[in-house]
Design a protein that fits this description.
Layout (H helix, E strand, L loop, with lengths): L2 E2 L5 H14 L15 E2 L18 E5 L2 E5 L2 E8 L2 E8 L14 E8 L11 E5 L11 E4 L4 E14 L4 E13 L7 E15 L3
Parallel strand pairs: 5-12
Antiparallel strand pairs: 1-8, 2-4, 3-4, 3-12, 5-6, 6-7, 7-9, 8-10, 9-10, 10-11, 11-12
Length: 203
């Protein structure tokens, strides 16, 4: 996953990201290979955050225009050699490892264009898959208890930081796969602004 720097004028980056969309604690465990049903909320509910007066109990993504509920988002920022990486993952319940789990989750790793794990303001991640086939990868958005995996195809993310909170706006196209080989993959549009619990792994 390659990076794009976006240090100048956060509002310009956000505008570009929106235009592109229209046109186009602890260590987390990797999601299990098997495990079910997108939880949806009324379309009138915000797909970003709940009111600032209360801490959100869930996070939301717009997936092909439908609002889908997920557990809260966490963002672990760490250094791997010369790279600074961010791991965006859902705070899944303990029963998510069970085969009959019917919730939704996400698990995405991003290479960042910063040398400082504490410097996320205005950072931008961009990824475009070089192949169209399904990849053997633990990363993606998982629906229906991992019965459906959305793998990044052409995706961008913008990090926003203020004094009280950190959030990530992620949007783009994902390729949807199921365990049924007879079901052809679909291109799925995803758009979400996720407030995150930030976990910094300092040297």
């Amino acid at each position: 996953m390659r990076l794009m720097s976006a240090r100048n004028s956060g509002w310009i980056l956000t505008a570009c990201l929106c235009t592109w969309i229209v046109t186009g604690c602890g260590e987390p465990a990797a999601p299990p290979k098997t495990s079910p049903a997108p939880a949806t909320v009324p379309a009138t509910q915000s797909a970003t955050t709940e009111p600032a007066t209360s801490k959100p109990s869930v996070s939301f993504m717009l997936i092909n225009g439908k609002t889908v509920a997920f557990p809260l988002a966490k963002l672990r920022v760490d250094r791997k050699g010369s790279r600074v990486t961010a791991l965006l993952f859902s705070d899944d319940p303990k029963d998510a490892i069970n085969a009959n789990y019917d919730g939704n989750s996400f698990y995405l790793e991003m290479d960042l264009d910063t040398d400082d794990v504490e410097d996320l303001a205005g950072a931008m991640w961009s990824y475009k898959s070089k192949i169209s086939e399904r990849q053997d990868s633990p990363y993606g958005i998982f629906l229906n208890g991992h019965k459906k995996q959305l793998q990044p195809m052409d995706v961008r993310a913008l990090f926003e930081v203020n004094e009280s909170a950190t959030s990530i706006h992620i949007a783009g196209r994902f390729m949807s796969y199921t365990d049924d080989e007879n079901v052809p993959p679909e291109i799925i549009a995803v758009d979400a602004k996720l407030p995150v619990d930030l976990i910094l792994k300092k040297d």
